[in-house]
Specification:
Distance between the termini: 36 Å
Pfam families: Fungal_trans_2 (PF11951)
Number of helices: 16
Structural class: mainly alpha
Largest sheet: none
Helix content: 55-70%
Radius of gyration: 20 Å
Number of domains: 2
Shape: globular
InterPro entries: Fun_TF, Sterol_Uptake_Regulator
GO molecular function, one term: DNA-binding transcription activator activity, RNA polymerase II-specific
Amino acid sequence: MISVVATSSEHQDSLYGSFKGRSLSLCDLELLHHFTLSTSQTVGSNRQLQRTMQEVVPRLALSEPYLMHALLALSALHLDCMRPLSSRRYWLPALQHYSDALPAFRASLQSITEKNCHALFAFAHLITKCAFAILACTQTPIFSPESEITADFISHLQGGFSVHDTAFEWLVSGPLKDCLEAPLDSDPSFESYPHDDKLARLLPHLNSGNEECDIACREALNDLRRVFAMIATPNQTVSTRTLVYCWLARLSNRFILLMNKQNPEALIVLAHYSVMLNMIDEYWFMKGWGVRLLEQCQSKLCGAQLELISWPLEVLGLQPSGGVQVLT
């Protein structure tokens, strides 16, 4: 059930009053209202993050149109998800706001400053969730040359993490300080994750004969092992959701290209990422992502390759295809 925390009437009056003279449709006002009341409470379980999204981000959006577009897009997608019988009346506004948000964000990323870093960081938070939600509602393969949104959202993730890294000193003393996270240990022992052996056994099989491709796949796998170990760290100070996104944001361009080309070794690694995605399936914008990604990888693999993804198939409750034996 979605937790709805009402904002004070004083906050709402102040927020809406700031829009005097701006051209906002009734639909946009509905979306803004819904964001402050409901959507802002669904982006994470941290109460400070929820309050920041509810009160701070809408105020930042008043002066940055691209951030307002991202906010309205996410609100529309949330309503579309909540009201499946409404003939998808929020779907087109969501796509339009999503599309309108991107150009100014991309331009602003070229020059991250103390003034614009807060809006850029907030945008990355919102637009990433928009992209996940949009892909969840379409039949487009998640990682493929046909999926422009996939390329976009990896770029958005990378942009958001670059803003964090570049402008951390400004962010930590700014209005979004409650959104910042730092790990207890950024390089824990792989063995911290109790199922690391399921990942480690893949290394000798990432051997296509192309050294450059194999190195990219092994690096991606070891990064995945590292993030699993971080998630398993007791009293971890970074949310699982952030860590799940972190793996995608740190992927090399070579590995992203291999994923999009449906390279078998890359798909084997990606199939194991589905286990991590399934850890955050409770968020509406992530619902079904793990299963869908694993099914896509399974459909592109065959023979001995399928044996190598038997563990994620078992974890997510999918049936092995072609009589493949589950490896333990």
